[in-house]
Fold each of these.
Amino acid sequence: MSDPLPDEDGFLEDGPHRVHFERHGTGGAETFVLFNGLAMHTKAWYGFLPRLRPEFDVVLFDYLGQGESSDAEGDFLIPDLARHLAAILDRLGVARVHAMGISYGGFVAAEFARLFPGRLHTLTLSGIHLSHETLFSTYQEVSLAFYAGGESLFDLYTRYLYEKIFGESFATRAAEKLPHMRRGFHDRFRGRIGSLVKLTLAQDPFFASLDANLPGYRAIGAPALVLAGDEDRAIPPRAQRKIAGLLPSCRYEEIPGAGHVAYLEEPELFWDRVVRFARAKDAAA
């Protein structure tokens, strides 16, 4: 089956950087933005587009170091990624969006919501926390230690990652597919490990600024939904549940039997809730 063709795509130029984006749709419907996880790229969403199209337009973009975007020249911050999206939306003539971020993409989506709260219809987050979590810091340190080993340890890292992020049910059902999925991640990033390091390190100032930015998160007025996999071991539900006490108009739900990537593990449950939430935005506000 061939990949869907975007109706519009291009690059945002930001100094030495080129940020790849694409729109599926022609601007005639409300827009979803799907925020990539750390190991993803825009094409990772293609199989899920039929769950949103044609009711919604969909905007996708690669962060620096991902997919078709350029590698970063120097360090960058998560707010930079959020500002890239705002500039892309300006180019596309999109005023407001349904923002849906999973894992690392949830951090970027939350930062977009904090910086540009007036540009949201709704905000959906999955697999993130907005609190200080010691075990997450340890998880990040382990990942960076693998990256420091270069390509010789990168294959081992992908095995470690794929053991950690899935729930037992999906790992059993998809046992034959996991090696292919892991190989795809390995091949996409084995020559761009430096980009993974920079993306990972961008989380440090994000969390260092968390307390100072809490008033901004509390000022997000758009309806928000947190969808946690109840078997998430990377960011446990107890940490994700705290977000509902932070955002002023937020509800928390769990996806039974899912791990860290609930959108992939239990797609029927996950996307049905996302779409129903978007449709009910006015009632939820």
Amino acid sequence: MEDVSATPIVVPSWWERGKHIDPRYLISGLITLVLVVAQFRYHMVGGYDRLLVALLTCTITEAVLSAFVRGKVVNLQSAYISGLSLTLLLKPQAGALIWFVFGGFLAISSKYVLRYRDNHLWNPTNFAISALLLAAPNHLSVLSHQWGNDLVTNLVIWTFGLIIVARIRVLHITLSYVLSFLVLNAIRAFALGQPLLPEIAPLTGPMYQLFVFFMITDPRTVVRGRKNQIIVVVLVAAVEALIRLGSDQNWPLPTAFNVAPAFLALAIVGPIAKFMELRRAPTQQRQQQLQGQQH
């Protein structure tokens, strides 16, 4: 009788080939999907001139700065991701295109200027949007619409998103944030006597989908180690919940905190966590070297 337990598990070849794909290509594919769905089903982009300006600004800035700083033009996938994200998320008054120029320049230049020990601390798009909201709250906002009750749209986005973050091994970051968001907002809704569904509805919107699948999982700015990554993302969710509570209680917060609490929470917690990790790194490496010499 054949030993079924000894039968090897067949892994689809496309899944195996996915291991060798640069994560940036997977992320850019996901953001492209979100943008296409947002435009063709809900006309949320607001004009292809925005897309053109944002992409040109990001790619040209990346090419020029990388050539100047590193002596060569680097892969422009990161610039492409930033351009798509800014196109979808930024909503300026009267559709002014200059904000996409400012946003693109801030996003890409932050990688070359705001650095510590040869690492940039902020996710480029998160930094640009947070900075613009703080600097010009009366001139622009961010996309916050939900997909509503369209189950198919949410199912497509979340299916592709979960597959991609699983492929690049950051699924635990996305799920930890989503779980923390649901728990903290459920507690907040109960404490304030508010209905639950409106509090968790933002997860069905493109802003949060980009946030949970791209910004908080950015390989360049997340800390190392699964445990540390989960701790940081829970802290991001906690700070976001605190900002939302402050808005409910009419705390004198800048408008940006009320408009995009998740973005501001990440812009505060993420760089601090990355800075602390980078600051400890040389000490930890030296201790490991000393331990190796002793053995």
Amino acid sequence: MTDQPVSVPLLAGPPMEVADEELAQSEELHDNTAGSVHSWDLVTGADGPGTRMTLFTAGCALRCQYCQNPDTWRMKDGVRHTVDEVMARVTRYATIMKVTGGGLTISGGEPLLQAQFVTQIFRRAHDLSIHTALDTAGLLGSRLSDDDLNYIDLVLLDIKSGLPDTYTRVTGRPLQPTLDFAERLSRLGKTMWIRFVLVPGLTDDEENVDAIGKFVATLDGVQRMEILPFHQMGKAKWEATGEPYLLSDNPTPTPELIARVKAQLESYGLPVKVA
């Protein structure tokens, strides 16, 4: 049972067809010299420790019902940048990132749609002793070799639901590839922050939360388990895309719901933080 009963419709229709096209295109256009970039940001206290430059790539193979950046879904909507161009901007802020214990985070969209491009940036940043973090849903984790992962200091892994049916309802994709990637990261001793978006009526079911907690508790290297409460800040972007936004009337989580989910996850011995 949920604390806030809400009827959320199933995700279906054209958005997944477009996502399939993005996935197919990304398989054809692997490039380790250039990629499609949506935007950049310089922030503190988000997307990893310290002051970080976050590079948002364009293109995503998931269609999460609660996505706050649907404008990042298509690679064609980004701007083509070479690895050299990206590194010129990164090195400009290298000193402040190092002084604050920060670094470079690559997010999206889904960065692993452009795995070779992303890997080359991480390799170059790592050579400059810049801390690196990958923000990913893990669906395409198999695109990274173990050697590629040597250049990634932190993985921000979004586990969007613990139950396969709920995960597919939320994202349009299967859960298992994300679990497989998480277990691989654990075996390799990689540091992880696990992220979970709490959506009333969609991801808040006690069984779903327990499934996440049980799984994450089996992993080594989990430094933090983050609860990200659902919000409506992406609503205007959905309206601008013309895609149907199924959560337009969905409430944000109450403090009581957040506290219940936090306690559930903490019961598995996890270091939980509410973002």
